[in-house]
UniProtKB/TrEMBL annotation:
It comes from Lachnoclostridium phytofermentans. Coiled coil: none annotated. The lineage of its organism: Bacteria, Bacillati, Bacillota, Clostridia, Lachnospirales. This is Glycosyl hydrolase. GO terms for biological process: carbohydrate metabolic process. It comes from the Bacteria. InterPro entries: Gal_mutarotase_sf_dom. One of its GO terms (molecular function) is hydrolase activity.
Amino acid sequence: ETDLGDLELVEKASENLMLYAEHTWGYSSSISEPWETLVGELEMKKTAYAINGNTYASKNLDKILAKKGEVSIKNFRPQHFRVINPHEIPLRTKAVIYVELWEYLDGVSFGLDVPFEVVDSITGKVLPSQVVRIPRAFEIEVMVSLEAKEERELSIRRIKPKEITIKNHAHIGAEGIEDIILSNTYEESTRKVETNDFIIQFSLKKGIEKIINKATNENIVRDMDIAPFSGIYEITPIKGDFCDTRRRMGRNRKAESTKRYYSFLTDIGVVENGEVFIALRLDYQLEGTGTYSVFLKIYKQMPQIDAMVRIHKHSIWEPENLYVALPFTTNENESTYVDKTGCIIRPGIDQLPGSNKEFYLIQNGIVLHGEKSNVIISIKDAPLITFGDLESKPIELCTGEDVDYNRETPYSWIMNNYWETNFKADLGGFYEFAYSILVTENETPKESFIKCEATNEGVLGFYIDK
């Protein structure tokens, strides 16, 4: 909105982000001579476009929020916040607000041991909330119901500690471990987590095994060996030089000699549990990585599961691919939809004959549209996806009638370095990729994609003066 922001900043952000998105990554010898000075210089130049685009966008957002009442934090200011739903649809969702480590709440230094509640400043209604410690601050997630474009004021206030009733059964043993399920409660363990909307069952061999959608009583995880959010890594041995090996792949992204590895679970544990969500960490071992962990956040008061895939990737010169498995389904007679720039399509069906169906660039995610329900796979920051068998095979172009292909298992294609020129050879480093799974009923694919976009973008929460 130009009356709130700055059109010049928007144009500068757009130009820089467009230049960053331009497909040529860098210098022509980036694969054959990755140590070349120009390769490093153009990498930094390319990164500068993204940084500058982010800077202009952030400055514009600061101007907008200032006009909406945002103020700088300071000592002894009461904790008052404004939450805004900027979307065209009503949302039952989480709002995130922050309290700095040095802040005081009603004269007491804020901390995890300080009892508090979040209230609607107008109605006084207490809202479900949960706090976690993060670097330099406390992050509070609040469950809110907001109409389209609605603004709401929230406050944090200190309360008396809740009295604890001593029970006469040993659901917690002398060693401090709570491993007995109480009656009239949902199970919340590394074996099973139940909420108002889901029953999630875990396998100690692979991770998530089943997710039962209570609204339909259907398992929304496909019956296959690959678990949701687990990793698949591929590497192709070098024959000849590093460029020729890639060139010989042709339009494929792998060769007959490509080696494929699947992650396997090494540990699982509950790391957070409160009124809003329960969080588990699933640690995997995967070739090509030093760390492959899934931070799973299961919400208790809305049908949504968030997954943060955290990776420490090794530096490898050989051609490689890394995928995140998304084996979801409505378990109904379903069609798969993806959102492209300006349109929604069914891969394999709503395409020109002779067009590519090996991979797709998407905007917000995937919608599995069933007869009664939809499964929304929100993909925040990994725009490439692929479907079906990952084996090397001759390229088949789309006929426009590939219904079976449309129902294949989707994968998020998060990393590759197989192009022989202009693209980065080294994928090493630390990464995080965000996904959300939502279930809805009686929605069109278009309605689900609007919700998918709103999930990716979230709602705004910021400090205000009372």
